[in-house]
């Protein structure tokens, strides 16, 4: 996985990062999700999204602050099991 969207995005979901992604690898289900998710299989590690995030929620995986380490798995799981990813997110940061 190249980039991860961490806790600062939760309940903010500014989509400026989506519009600059050249491969459309940033997703969410509007009205259901509390954050955006980067598909680890589609991300090309270009970094275009990182400076566009107004809340500094996007990090290269190897630079993700330790307190947000759980967001790496949440981003990856969402693309195979949205319910499990949402449950993990709620456990990390209750609504």
Compile the SSE list and pairings.
Elements lengths: L2 E3 L10 H5 L5 E2 L9 E2 L19 E3 L9 H9 L3 H11 L3
Antiparallel strand pairs: 1-4, 2-3
Helix pairs in contact: 2-3
Describe this structure in words.
The mean pLDDT is 95. The longest helix has 11 residues. Helix 2 packs antiparallel against helix 3. The chain has a single domain, classed as Alpha-Beta Plaits (2-Layer Sandwich). Helix content is 26%, strand content 11%. It contains three helices and four strands, in the order βαβββαα. With 95 residues, it is an alpha+beta fold. The strands form two sheets. Strands 1-4 form a two-stranded antiparallel ribbon. Strands 2-3 form a two-stranded antiparallel sheet. It starts with a strand and ends with a helix.
Please give a handful of descriptors for the protein shown:
two-stranded antiparallel ribbon, 26% helix, Alpha-Beta Plaits, two-stranded antiparallel sheet, alpha+beta
Number of helices: 3
Ranges where pLDDT stays below 50 over 5 or more residues in a row are: none
The overall pLDDT average reads 95
Give the SSE string: EHEEEHH
What is the CATH architecture descriptor? 2-Layer Sandwich
Using only C-alpha atoms, the radius of gyration works out to 12 Å
Number of E strands: 4
Let me know the largest β-sheet: 2 strands, antiparallel
CATH class: Alpha Beta
Tell me the overall shape.
globular
């Amino acid at each position: 996985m190249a980039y991860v969207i961490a806790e600062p995005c939760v309940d903010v979901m500014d989509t400026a990062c989506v519009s600059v992604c050249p491969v459309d690898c940033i997703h969410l289900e509007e009205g259901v999700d509390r954050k955006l998710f980067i598909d680890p299989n589609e991300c090309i590690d270009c970094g275009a999204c990182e400076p566009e995030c107004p809340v500094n929620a996007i990090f290269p995986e190897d630079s993700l602050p330790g307190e947000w380490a759980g967001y790496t798995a949440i981003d990856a799981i969402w693309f195979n099991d949205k319910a499990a990813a949402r449950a993990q997110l709620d456990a990390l940061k209750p609504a």
